């Protein structure tokens, strides 16, 4: 629970995914301001699309406690599913999105079945192997995937509407990502969501409370890879090309770095951190593309710093700034009405939070 | 058949590189319980230092400086970074080593660039032919180094007081400390030695692999796979598993495609983990508290 979300609860009585939505509205405005500048808009576009992939990874790493380093492999499956379906059987856009998600979920199921019985670094190792195997398979199955050169893709099209310009494609991505993130946020607040987090904190204790640990993990894998697949679909339309070089091992590490640097779910309960991490990643990648090694170096140092020292990540900074603005607005309105400040109890929120903080530190 | 045997013969040198890398990894894992994903980057860094010093000051100084650098880098990373994460959840140190991987690789890319750099062959470039099969002096040196270092480390572990202390720290760090073993110094020492071994392997293998910042990325994955297949934590398993992976990957490259090596090896890894989760030579793993 962050300050912004708490404020959201105060204004409408329910926790809307206000962090995520506020951020997406800001992104819409930023995109609108940048709409004439193609290269800047491309950064934000990439950031938003990566954002969904990173948030799905956060579900796995931060919320379910399964440290996966094969995310680029699943992202690639989604993108290839889109490109291949486009070349062989043209699907209407909503069906195509679901198809990419479903194919990726199937790949995630295979990966989950192969890896989830293993614990700790053995699990991480198998996901690593998966992340490496997918681009290699794409290189070798050239009849289906176009091999090294890859497959070209068309802009997304819905009925008579074509998202061909960068600005239109950006809006399309933003809407889909917003929808997916809201679904994910909602999911995390249901009993399944709490089961996921309890498995992370203690498998033994959650089993004792009647949570089926293995099926919960498999379910997380399915959900996470489904949304990763949708991100892959968006990427295919955005990039107009799906080739193995977009999904290398470094990208998997970059996604993980974005989860950690943005502020992972192990530290808070919002996916907005992932979005911030992904935007930072996209910015770095684009700006330092010609300078070999700089983005790796900066991300590496940032990951170490966040993991060891600054554990809450970048999102806490954004959150702090956002809540400052909210607070100013609120006190201004209160002064206008002349009514006393509502008495809020922080205890109910602070107590469970401090407990999870402790257990994730232990 | 002759092609098959030649492929197996030349895969032994790759197996040796994997074995030396895996050995360093296992030494660190045994002492500190941390799986270091940044292993290859450390090794490559040492090889880069070797190549740079060699070009200016010659071979003997290059060896001395690069081993000293490896010892400092190893114990320094443990003291400055990993030690801060030792009481955290198991995934925090892992994330730190992934960060180290990215950071070191980026640093090397910034300093030395991504084009292969020249590095001399430690044992010269003699080619030996016997019965139609060929091998080189560098390959023989690598195989010798892999077997030699494994035997040496095995002897230290089993026969010396130092090794007994290492095993005690691995079994239970706190109890070992109560028995008067300086656990922290042992762990930092294990990091230093582990990185140094990998560094030596990297310097020997660099002419064969081509010295770039990403030189050891795949090697580390193969070494990982090899040590897990053999049984993570067992020195003999580490050596055997690495040679198995070397042979399998070389045969894949020879008969199918070099692009499929990692896929095949990881398939093998998953299969072994299912049939024998502790690996071929591994004992059943104890849970670290």
Give the biggest beta sheet of chain A: 2 strands, antiparallel
- The Cα radius of gyration of chain A reads 20 Å
Work out the radius of gyration of chain B.
Answer: 19 Å
Q: Strand order of the main beta sheet of chain B, please?
A: 1-2
- Tell me roughly what share of residues is in helical segments of chain A: over 70%
Straight-line distance between termini of chain A: 20 Å
Amount of helix of chain B: over 70%
Q: Classify the secondary structure makeup of chain A into a structural class.
A: mainly alpha
SSE pattern of chain B, N- to C-terminal: HHHHEEHHHHHHH
Low-confidence stretches of chain B: none
What's the end-to-end separation of chain B, in Å? 51 Å
| Largest sheet, strands/sense/barrel of chain B | 2 strands, antiparallel
Oligomer: heterodimer
Order of helices and strands of chain A: HHHHHHHEEEHHHHEHHHHH
Strand content of chain B is under 5%
Q: Helices and strands of chain B: which structural class? A: mainly alpha
How would you explain this protein's 3D organization?
The complex is a heterodimer of chains A (362) and B (289). Chain A is mainly α and 362 residues long. Chain A is built from 16 helices and 4 strands. In chain A, the strands form 2 sheets. A two-stranded antiparallel sheet of chain A has the order 1-4. In chain A, a hairpin with a 2-residue loop joins β2 and β3. The longest helix of chain A is centred in the middle third of the chain and has 27 residues. Chain A is globular, with a radius of gyration of 20 Å. The two termini of chain A are 20 Å apart. The C terminus of chain A is likely disordered. Chain B is mostly helical and 289 residues long. Chain B has 11 helices and 2 strands. A two-stranded antiparallel ribbon of chain B has the order 1-2. In chain B, a hairpin with a 2-residue loop joins β1 and β2. The N and C termini of chain B lie far apart (51 Å). The mean pLDDT of chain B is 81. Classes of the chains: A mainly alpha (362), B mainly alpha (289).
